[in-house]
TrEMBL record:
<keyword id="KW-0325">Glycoprotein</keyword>
<feature type="transmembrane region" description="Helical">
    <location>
        <begin position="146"/>
        <end position="166"/>
    </location>
</feature>
<feature type="transmembrane region" description="Helical">
    <location>
        <begin position="348"/>
        <end position="368"/>
    </location>
</feature>
<feature type="transmembrane region" description="Helical">
    <location>
        <begin position="276"/>
        <end position="299"/>
    </location>
</feature>
<feature type="region of interest" description="Disordered">
    <location>
        <begin position="82"/>
        <end position="105"/>
    </location>
</feature>
<feature type="domain" description="Major facilitator superfamily (MFS) profile">
    <location>
        <begin position="44"/>
        <end position="465"/>
    </location>
</feature>
<dbReference type="GO" id="GO:0015311">
    <property type="term" value="F:monoamine:proton antiporter activity"/>
</dbReference>
<comment type="similarity">
    <text>Belongs to the major facilitator superfamily. Vesicular transporter family.</text>
</comment>
<dbReference type="Pfam" id="PF07690">
    <property type="entry name" value="MFS_1"/>
</dbReference>
<keyword id="KW-0532">Neurotransmitter transport</keyword>
<keyword id="KW-0813">Transport</keyword>
<dbReference type="GO" id="GO:0005278">
    <property type="term" value="F:acetylcholine:proton antiporter activity"/>
</dbReference>
<dbReference type="GO" id="GO:0043195">
    <property type="term" value="C:terminal bouton"/>
</dbReference>
<dbReference type="GO" id="GO:0030121">
    <property type="term" value="C:AP-1 adaptor complex"/>
</dbReference>
<feature type="transmembrane region" description="Helical">
    <location>
        <begin position="319"/>
        <end position="341"/>
    </location>
</feature>
<feature type="transmembrane region" description="Helical">
    <location>
        <begin position="411"/>
        <end position="434"/>
    </location>
</feature>
<feature type="transmembrane region" description="Helical">
    <location>
        <begin position="440"/>
        <end position="460"/>
    </location>
</feature>
Length: 532
């Protein structure tokens, strides 16, 4: 008997040891998986940031090259590269050396050329504007990685086309092709960040990092293109960007193969983009994004000529105009991320404050009389844009989380549409407004629009108090779980319900109370959710 008891005790101890070992192994695996997930999302953030950096560098790198193409169309032979006339932007004078920091939009010498340059710079945003509604819907259906990879592939082809372009028509085709790639890469990239960084303040930090890369790309491209164009030829800047784009695509394939495990097989289908567009909160955010970017989009093609006419600015001064603005933009991103972490309920206020700063700065631009003075309001505009973008882009993701389905392709397609509206109109409309009304009137109008729109963001004041819609829970109650995603969600709901039920409360009472809570849910909310 004693031997039997000792044997049973030994077996029990062995079972406990095996169980403890199994639990320890499971914990180690969970910790490893969580660590890998964190590393994976950091690498995905790097991929997205590089994609956004490349897109904005390609957007601006053609600035020092466009004048030579225009000269080539006039028969000046300027498209040959470094051997082209060094003073393609000759109105600044002195020495015939090309400015390595050229104007954002090169001034043209003739009306027809002015139209051609304006259409060339606007063609990317125009195509992006047309494609975004389709790209957002596609991203919601197939996931984020595959559209991001497709966008990078199109941008790679666009960059190579730029490198070997020999005339205006090829440049226009390459520019339009870039807009197609951007509609997929930019939207999918931002949506991927919002999806992988679902908690605050990590989401705001990640989106702020992406915005800083966008700003740096726009700033670094003109000197990058100018230096390489002058010393290595016109193809070299584009070939370098194409190589980086190819490496970024390969990194994405290594980190998260888009056609790997079918991760979205049981994920919810996103709310259609047309329904998101009529959501009043999303509409307010989209309007703010368009309004705050109009001063930058309209000043880029007009400020160079105004500075030369009003203050006799040289090419070097015109090229340096936007350089200092990068630093307040990054500062604005940093400040907003820190404030959002400490006071997340004031996101609307940060956006409204940014619009007020943009409005005041826009109105100050025409009053400047020298190069040093004009830098101050331009820095104010970029600081304000950083406040608005960094505060409102995470707000879009939060609105989708609490009012729709947590799938972000369509909502960030709406954000991209908002930006594209400003940058499609700027190169074409701004010059005409300056010609008919004057530079001062243009800036006063843009400033007034931002100041008047700032109070509209009060509409977002109570957004942070919203709770997630019950529609997802209703569907899971009414239908049995159809896949892993639904099963996990059902188990989570059950666990929460059990943990919150008071001691002694019967299952029947809990069910009755639960259904009473759901009684106020609207039919429209329920119809917003579809599960495959």
């Amino acid at each position: 008997m004693a031997e039997a008891e000792a044997g049973a005790a030994g077996r029990a101890r062995a079972a406990v040891a095996r169980l403890s070992e199994a639990v320890g192994e499971r914990r180690r695996r969970l910790g490893t998986a969580m660590g890998e997930a964190r590393r994976q999302r950091r690498l995905l953030l790097l991929v997205v940031c590089v994609a956004l950096l490349l897109d904005n560098m390609l957007y601006m790198v053609i600035v020092p090259i466009v004048p030579d193409y225009i000269a080539a169309m006039r028969g000046g032979g300027g498209a040959a590269g470094p051997a082209a006339p060094a003073g393609a932007n000759e109105s600044g004078g002195g020495g015939g050396n090309r400015s390595l920091l050229p104007a954002r939009y090169p001034p043209a010498t003739g009306g027809n050329e002015d139209v051609q340059i304006g259409v060339l710079f606007a063609s990317k945003a125009m195509l992006q504007l047309l494609v975004n509604p389709l790209s957002g819907t596609l991203i919601d259906r197939v996931g984020y990685e595959l559209p991001l990879l497709a966008g990078l592939a199109v941008m790679f082809l666009s960059t190579l086309t730029f490198a070997f372009a020999a005339n205006y028509a090829t440049l226009f085709a390459a520019r339009s092709l870039q807009g197609l790639g951007s509609a997929f890469a930019d939207t999918a990239g931002i949506a991927l960040i919002a999806d992988r960084y679902s908690e605050e303040p990590a989401r705001s930090r990640a989106l702020g990092t992406a915005l800083a890369c966008i700003s740096f790309g726009s700033l670094a491209a003109p000197p990058f293109g100018g230096v390489l164009y002058q010393f290595a030829g016109k193809r070299v800047p584009f070939l370098v960007l194409a190589a980086v784009c190819l490496l970024d695509g390969l990194l994405l394939l290594a980190v998260e193969p888009p056609c790997g495990a079918g991760a979205r097989a049981n994920m919810p289908v996103g709310t259609p983009i047309h329904r998101l567009m009529v959501d009043p909160y999303i509409a307010v955010v989209a309007g703010a994004l368009t309004t705050c970017n109009i001063p930058l989009a309209f000043l880029e093609p007009t400020i160079a000529n105004w500075m030369k006419e009003s203050m006799g600015a040289s090419e070097w001064e015109v090229g340096l105009t936007w350089l200092p603005a990068f630093f307040p933009h990054v500062l604005g991103v940093y400040v907003t991320v820190r404030l959002a972490a400490a006071y997340p309920h004031l996101q609307w206020f940060y956006g409204a404050l940014g619009m007020a700063i943009i409005g005041a700065s826009s109105c100050l631009v025409p009053a400047c009389r020298n190069f040093g003075q004009v830098i101050v309001p331009l820095c104010g505009i970029c600081f304000g844009i950083a406040l608005v973008d960094t505060a409102l882009l995470p707000t879009l993701a939060f609105l989708v989380d609490v009012r729709h389905v947590s799938v972000y392709g369509s909502v960030y397609a709406i954000a991209d549409i908002s930006y594209s509206v400003a940058y499609a109109l700027g190169p074409i409309v701004a010059g005409q407004i300056v010609h008919t009304m004057g530079f001062a009137q243009l800036n006063l109008g843009m400033g007034l629009a931002n100041v008047l729109y700032a109070p509209v963001l009060l509409f977002l004041k109570n957004v942070c108090q919203m709770k997630p819609s019950h529609s997802e829970r209703n569907i899971l109650l009414e239908e049995g779980p159809k896949g892993l995603y639904d099963t996990i969600k059902m188990e989570e709901r059950k666990g929460v319900g059990k943990s919150l039920r008071p001691v002694g409360e019967t299952e029947e009472n809990g069910t009755d109370s639960y259904h009473r809570d759901l009684a106020g849910v609207s039919e429209e909310d329920s119809s917003d959710y579809e599960y495959s």
